[in-house]
Amino acid sequence: MSFEENIRKVVPYTPGEQPQKKVIKLNTNECPYSPSPRVAQAIKEMDIDALRKYPDPVCASLVSSLAKYYGLSDDQVFVGVGSDDVLSMCFLTFFAGQKPIIFPDITYSFYEVWADVYRIPYKVIPLNDNFDINVSDYICDNGGVVIANPNAPTGVAESLENIEEIVKKNQSSIVIVDEAYIDFGGESAVGLINKYDNVIVTRTMSKSRALAGMRIGYAFGPAKLIKYLNDVKFSVNSYTMNMPALLAGKAAIEDDEYFTEIRDKVVATREWCKKELKELGFTFRDSKTNFIFARPPKGNAKEIFEKLKENDIYVRYFNKPRINEYLRISIGTDDEMKKFFEVLKKI
Ligand SMILES: *Cc1c(COP(=O)(O)O)cnc(C)c1O
């Protein structure tokens, strides 16, 4: 017998490239603006001596700021190392049954990876040709449901009515709503956590709050589910959130004015980019996110992706069935997008 048989083997998630040279980076949906100046201040004023000690395992101050901001109680909030960590903990906690969990065929590709690594059976449900979900497909016997709303990489937002229907008709499984992009548009399901006991909503500070490098994610849910989530977290690693991240997250949440300003700038640039792309003959579903998932008129997405890259402009291309004629273009600053369109027109 070989030790190979004892090894947990998985096909890992492939993140977008992080080139070390200076490029126009429109490939991983980061925020093109700096984090709140209050974040810089909080880090600068951090007591370095306090790093001797472990950070607060329950992340109380960040949890309270989030609860206060969203009008929830502290026991309805969970925080983690980016929403990737939060979602991973959710998969580990809520999907321990035998029945397959379900999610769309075109969605955040990490879902498949977590299902694999935790040995969770899963079934993907095709979106329709417009990239919409068909609600009745989600009303079936299952071990759990995961929906990104707005969805990635399509940018399409589902109505709250549809999300509520899925939650309501799945009382015997947990429904996770991944709201990584909700600040840019769409209707949040956060209100459902006081109405149903089987729903978890996840969020991130990586996109709308310009803190991808700090790794801060969070989840909202009924207190009972948050307790289950914490029990699993404390069984894996008690100290997931480091002290700078706890301080930065709190500072970011408390600066609502700055948050609104940069979020609105991204949304305004996105609306302008939609017009430009339309004029160039690109087709796309309306985006409620900080990116546009668009098909060039000739469907030659791969070729355009490569040519943009030669010009130091990085967008995302997925060489996968059904979406291999699309480019996912993150929204940068107005200047970056002007440069992008200049180069795109030449191509
Ligand atoms: C970016 C993203 C995440 C993860 O974000 P973190 O940086 O780990 O917080 C989760 N879900 C979706 C759909 C995303 O696009």
Would you write up a description of this structure?
The model has no long low-confidence stretch (mean pLDDT 97). The protein has ten helices and 13 strands. It folds into two domains: 3-34 and 257-346, Aspartate Aminotransferase, domain 1 (Alpha-Beta Complex); 37-255, Aspartate Aminotransferase, domain 2 (3-Layer(aba) Sandwich), CATH 3.40.640. The protein is globular. Helix content is 35%, strand content 14%. The protein has helices spanning 37-44, 60-70, 82-94, 110-117, 160-168, 223-236, 243-254, 256-279, 301-310, 334-346, and strands at 24-25, 77-80, 101-104, 122-125, 145-148, 175-178, 199-204, 217-220, 283-284, 291-295, 313-314, 316-317, 327-330. It has 347 residues and is an alpha/beta fold. The structure holds pyridoxal-5'-phosphate.
Summarize the structure.
This protein is an alpha/beta fold. It is built from ten helices and 13 strands. Helix content is 35%, strand content 14%.
